[in-house]
Specification:
The protein has 327 residues and is an alpha/beta fold. It folds into two domains: 194 residues, 3-Layer(aba) Sandwich (Rossmann fold), CATH 3.40.50.720; 100 residues, UDP-galactose 4-epimerase, domain 1. The protein is 38% helix and 18% strand. The chain has ten helices and 14 strands. A seven-stranded parallel sheet has the order 3-2-1-4-5-6-11, sandwiched between helices. It has a three-stranded mixed sheet with strand order 12-9-14. Helix 5 links the parallel strand 5 and strand 6. Helix 1 crosses helix 7 and helix 6 crosses helix 10. The longest helix is centred in the N-terminal third of the chain and has 21 residues. It binds uridine-5'-diphosphate. Uridine-5'-diphosphate (UDP) binds next to helix 6 and strand 8.
Amino acid sequence: MRVLLTGGAGYVGSIATERLLDLGHEVLVFDNLGRGHRAAVDARARFVRGDVRTPDELESAFAAFKPEAVMHFAALALVGESMKRPGLYFDNNFAGLLRLAETMRRHDVRRIVFSSTCAVYGAPAVVPMDETQPTAPESPYGESKLMGERLLGWYAQRHGFLPVLLRYFNACGASARHGEDHAPETHLIPNVLRTALGRQARVEIFGDDYETPDGTCIRDYIHVLDLAEAHILALECEAGGTFNLGNGAGYSVQQVIEEARRVTGRPIPVTVRPRRPGDPPRLVASAGEAATRLGWKPQRPSLRTILEDAWAWHRARPDGYGDRATG
Ligand code: UDP
């Protein structure tokens, strides 16, 4: 299939690109390189530098490549940043999707796999969370993704789109060639491993007074290769749908740090800081729907494997893709 990936130079998108190409699909990566990396784009993929908010750039990419399906990764994805700059998030994540959906409609492309997030739920009433949990986002990031889901729902109803909405929990790990490289880095696992590498002095723990067994927040860490696999299955899904993607197991910040000390064999000093605004205490997926309807079964659920793979990437590329100066 000819698949256009927006955001294919980013973390999850670069690994989905790799997997699609391995399976023999044709891939065009469309990315503004605002946060992604040119070096993260697999050499077998075509590449266009473009922005989803710019209709002309989308138009020429669609006209030249004639995609049969779209995977839409291009988005901003930091809760904290979205609390400070909501407009940036609605512009990139919602207005960008609207432009993309209109371009798809004009070119008669109906199949789209959309990167959504567990942030659409806000703080859950029940854990583990399935897709029937009420959506009540607590950040502009979560809201912008929920608005995107709803837009695609209307395009499904009115224009025959086939959207598959994938609500990721905490993406982590790496493939042999691609991993996580954000600047600045805000995510827990890369920060823990950067500390193990001596690139930062200590890990800041954002709050140790939550109502959890050790007082630190619990998250469902899902290997990026398992996420990539869900996208492949979603591409084949005829009916569309909404799916939580997680392992169904939660680990606290403390547990992640302890396991990282074992995996790296290095001391990882910590310091406790105040809570980070917008962080719910516990987010754990129930991914039964993805198992039943997509046939998705995570192959790398253990935190140890996740940390080993991420550690291999960070050790091999301590400076990431090495293009920080240019974004
Ligand atoms: N966290 C932390 N120190 C860090 C980064 C994150 O204590 O340097 C905590 C954060 O407060 C949250 C969890 O680790 O409870 C996961 O955060 P991350 O930013 O990786 O993902 P999020 O759940 O926000 O998408």
